[in-house]
Design brief:
heterodimer; A: mainly alpha; 15 helices; flat; B: alpha+beta; Glutaredoxin; four-stranded mixed β-sheet; 3 helices; 24% strand
Chain lengths: 337, 80
């Protein structure tokens, strides 16, 4: 037991040394060892790949480990308890914040929705949670931090929260109760027992290690593909190539990016590296943000899952309100920067 | 012993089922393993995060995939 803890404590300084010397080592490898011609498309694509991939993976491992530990203090049950009986606005703000830290997988969106409804969490508040949880996830934030810098990561989180709060509030105002499938309110709850285990600090650390294994084990391949495509674009696509298509003067690019983004079901792992390079080639920040939010936060599979509990008009309202929020973010950032 | 795997058929639920069967085999227990994938049925267990492992109608884990060793420990507790 303690041996594992010691291993983790040794790994931390190793992580720091590797992370902070990555740039030097990559350049040394590319320029000295392999002696590639600096500035050629292939060299720059290659340099991009072998620098960004380990960097992003290192960040993912570290952050997901700590997020895992934090998440072990939150559960959907606890979140539901905190949201029960909360009014609009306060409830929307709280739900959006909790959406970030509560463990969530879009495959359990329905059980979570049912649990919230059962204990009387207002629908608008529930929607704030369901918008924030997938959109602001640790993988997206880590990738944004690693590939765009901390400012863009903060902008993404803050605007994402604002969309979740406002969209949930607006949906709550529209009296959505009638638009929930009837069986939801007729549910009979059973009296199944639940074995609640108290977690020790060691269990929580284990929880962190497990989430690293599970998440990084699943997404590393998408990160690798995303960065490989990004590397190709970085090396071979001419500068300013994206200006006319995704630049800020092309106003229609914001709604277009959102429309394209909804059916594009990619996790943050694959899409962020590609978008980071598009910005380098002249895509504007607002349009890029809108595109990423649409891909990550509004996904077709999730909409299909939600159809089990929501009637069609409410599905359209949900997608429409969130898309409008994303569009506002896109336009505002294109206007400001 | 009756084991139920709650979840709507995502990859995490299949992983939980695989580990549960592996745990049964390693521990040498016999039990029926059923998948519960209807939302109405899942809701009856007050489970808000899938996949969940239910042994003899007691929800043992939810929202995470326990290791094979952990599943064995749970099974032993129920078998005793």
């Amino acid at each position: 037991m303690n041996k594992r803890l010691i291993i983790l404590l040794v790994l931390l300084p190793v992580w720091i040394v590797v992370y902070y010397n990555l740039q030097t080592v990559t350049n040394w490898l590319v320029d000295e060892v392999l002696n590639l011609t600096s500035g050629s498309p292939f060299t720059e694509a290659f340099r991009f790949f072998i620098y960004e991939l380990p960097k992003v993976l290192l960040l993912l491992v570290l952050i997901i480990f700590f997020v895992g530990i934090i998440r072990s203090y939150f559960s959907p049950e606890r979140t539901r308890l905190m949201l029960g009986g909360k009014r609009q606005i306060t409830g929307n703000i709280l739900a959006s914040g909790l959406g970030i830290v509560t463990p969530f997988c879009s495959c359990s969106a329905i059980p979570l929705f049912l649990g919230f409804v059962e204990s009387g969490v207002p629908l608008g508040v529930t929607f704030s949670f369901l918008i924030a949880a997938p959109m602001i996830n640790e993988v997206a934030v880590v990738l944004l931090f690693g590939l765009f810098g901390w400012k863009t990561a903060v902008v993404y989180v803050v605007t994402g929260l604002m969309i979740a709060i406002t969209a949930g509030w607006v949906i709550g105002k529209l009296k959505p109760e009638k638009q929930v499938q009837d069986w939801v309110f007729e549910l009979q709850s059973g009296n199944a027992e639940t074995n609640n285990v108290l977690l020790t600090l060691f269990d929580r650390i284990q929880y962190g290690v497990d989430s690293v294994k599970e998440v990084v084990g699943k997404i590393w391949i998408y990160v690798a593909i995303g960065i490989a495509v990004g590397a190709g674009v970085h090396g071979y696509v001419p500068q300013d190539f994206m200006v006319s298509l995704m630049g800020k003067s092309a106003w229609y690019s914001v709604p277009l990016s959102i429309l394209v983004g909804i059916p594009l079901y990619s996790n943050a792992a694959g899409i962020v590296p590609i978008v980071s390079v598009l910005i380098e080639k002249g895509a504007s920040l607002g349009t890029s943000l809108a595109f990423m939010m649409s891909v990550i936060g509004l996904s077709l599979p999730e909409v299909i899952i939600l159809k089990k509990v929501l009637k069609r008009p409410l599905i359209f309202t949900f997608v429409g309100v969130v898309a409008a929020g994303i569009m506002a973010v896109g336009f505002i950032f294109n206007f400001l920067f | 012993m009756e084991i139920k795997i709650l979840g709507s058929g995502c990859s995490r639920c299949r992983e939980l089922e695989k580990r549960t069967r592996e745990a049964l085999e390693k521990a040498g227990f016999h039990a029926s393993v059923t998948k519960v994938d209807q939302m109405q049925d899942i809701a009856r267990y007050h489970v808000m995060a899938t996949p969940a492992l239910v042994v003899d109608e007691v929800v043992e884990t939810k929202g995470r995939i326990p290791s094979v060793e952990e599943v064995i420990q749970i099974l032993i507790r129920h078998f005793a």
